[in-house]
């Protein structure tokens, strides 16, 4: 296992253990002190446990080498894992929003310093996890790890809203401002909207990759420049590039002088492949079709 793979697996395991701990803590304290936003956040973390297990499984499958049934590799397993995380976040957003809205129509509970401290600890710990996981996800171009990091970010928002909501409830109690006592429930609605936004963005990205959407134009332009830098290339007839999980597949049709031998054409394709793959570590395969070119 490479260093990057070990780092990715470690980040997922840390996420899983953290989610289990935070789920237990938030649900127990949320039930004990009747904190709607903390309880909803705890149930959101419970969904995160399932999502993290899915991300871990997808990451392991995506690292499997290409085989007879999957000649392009298993990279899209990570995309499926990312899509599943987005689905879990969507369900969590709807659940949090529903229960927070219902809580607005009931007499608010007395705010608790323990619930406040739990939300604050969760917010700080999840932010550290978000930075750590996102850094490794970007370095390894792991879709499932980046999805897990965004899940941590959603938890940061949720815990921040809980801190603010419970804090407002304390202010409302201290200064007899009754409407501020609903800060806990109102924060839950804000959380649901923030989590919903992240879920939609993640879901769209996963859908685009599964539908073979091309890489962004800037990236494609970089590939074009590297191909055109080879002297024998007279014209790029077509180039396509798509993400396949944590790596990119490129196929191109290029025109070279028609009088060149098959061996010379083969050597040119090797030069192009080497140039692209040395400059872009996330490119796993470059397929090139040669067309003959003649001076008019």
TrEMBL record:
UniProt KW Manganese keyword = no
UniProt subcellular location:
Membrane
Q: Which residues form the Cation efflux protein transmembrane domain?
A: 12-211
Q: Which InterPro entries does this entry report, sorted A to Z? A: Cation_efflux (IPR002524), Cation_efflux_CTD (IPR027470), Cation_efflux_CTD_sf (IPR036837), Cation_efflux_TM (IPR058533), Cation_efflux_TMD_sf (IPR027469), CDF_Transporter (IPR050291)
- Which membrane topology term applies here? Multi-pass membrane protein
Q: Which UniProt keywords apply?
A: Membrane, Transmembrane, Transmembrane helix, Transport
Gene3D superfamilies found in the cross-reference section: Cation efflux protein transmembrane domain, Cation efflux protein, cytoplasmic domain
Q: Which residues form a coiled coil?
A: none
Any keyword Nucleus? no
Cation efflux protein cytoplasmic domain location is 216-292
Residue spans crossing the bilayer? 12-33, 79-100, 112-132, 153-171, 177-200
SUPFAM superfamilies (alphabetical):
Cation efflux protein cytoplasmic domain-like, Cation efflux protein transmembrane domain-like
Top-rank taxon of the source lineage equals: Bacteria
Entries under PANTHER family matching the protein: MITOCHONDRIAL METAL TRANSPORTER 1-RELATED
Q: Which family does it belong to?
A: Belongs to the cation diffusion facilitator (CDF) transporter (TC 2.A.4) family.
NCBIfam families with a match to the protein in the record: CDF (TIGR01297)
What is the protein named?
Cation diffusion facilitator family transporter
Q: Which organism is it from?
A: Paenibacillus aceris
